Amino acid sequence: MLLLRRMFSSAFPRAGGRAPEEVRVLDVRRVTKVTKGGKVLGFTALVVSGNLSGCVGYGYGKALDVPSAVQKALEQSRRTRIFLEQPADVSQATARQTITHAVKAEHCETIVELRPARVNSGIRANRNITAIAQVAGIQDISAKVHGSTNKLNVIKAAFDALKLLETPQDVALRRGVAVFHSDSSSS
């Protein structure tokens, strides 16, 4: 897996105007298109990028050479970014390290289950989901892939699952109740 570090200023800028971007190239393949005049060689690239604090996207690019394919995929990953909201109360256990609840999503014949994990348990997942979690800044997560393990389908199913995540505040607002915080220090 190729790891590239780049700086960009378009999404979620910091005080200095630039935010760090973590990029993972998951797959580069040589493809051939057969035409009347012969074979045309090309390359495809699958890329995941994020800012290590909850913003993550994926892209799939095709070109006649590898750098152009990676660049196209990187540009597409910036356009498909999603932001993973964290609970407002940071004192909640594992608020910044894992997801808030278990989710399950499918894309084509691929089913992805994402589950929260204990603190310091690490990332236990398919290598593609591991790359997504790392560039999103998720430190503890457990995941399982059922059915097809095609890389692009796993990525799309994982992003569908991440879009289903809700914070406790979202659930409380939808149900019309207040969020209850138990204070363990006063017994």
What's the topology here?
Elements lengths: L1 E7 L10 E17 L2 E13 L4 E9 L2 H14 L2 E2 L19 E5 L2 E7 L6 E2 L2 H10 L4 E7 L3 H13 L4 H8 L12
Parallel strand pairs: 8-9
Antiparallel strand pairs: 1-2, 2-3, 3-4, 4-5, 6-7, 7-9
What does this structure look like?
The chain has 4 helices and 9 strands; from the N terminus they run E-E-E-E-H-E-E-E-E-H-E-H-H. It has helices spanning 66-79, 127-136, 151-163, 168-175, and strands spanning 2-8, 19-35, 38-50, 55-63, 82-83, 103-107, 110-116, 123-124, 141-147. The chain has a 5-stranded antiparallel beta sheet. A 4-stranded mixed beta sheet has the order 6-7-9-8. It starts with a strand and ends in a 12-residue tail after the last helix. The relative contact order is 0.15. Mean pLDDT is 84; it is low at 1-15.
Task: Provide a quick synopsis of the model.
Helices cover about 25% and strands about 35% of the residues. By secondary structure, it is an alpha+beta fold. InterPro entries: Ribosomal_Su5_D2-typ_SF, Ribosomal_uS5, Ribosomal_uS5_C, Ribosomal_uS5_N, Ribsml_uS5_D2-typ_fold_subgr.
- SSE string, helix = H, strand = E? EEEEHEEEEHEHH
- Total E-strand runs: 9
Task: Return the CATH topology of the largest domain.
Answer: Double Stranded RNA Binding Domain
CATH level-1 class of the largest domain: Alpha Beta
What about the largest sheet? Answer: 5 strands, antiparallel
Count of runs of 4 or more consecutive helical residues: 4
Distance between the termini: 50 Å
Strand content: 35-45%
Radius of gyration: 19 Å
Describe the global form.
elongated
Tell me which CATH architecture of the largest domain applies here.
2-Layer Sandwich
Please state the structural category: alpha+beta
Helix percentage range: 10-25%
Q: Which regions are unreliable across 5 or more consecutive residues at pLDDT < 50?
A: 1-15
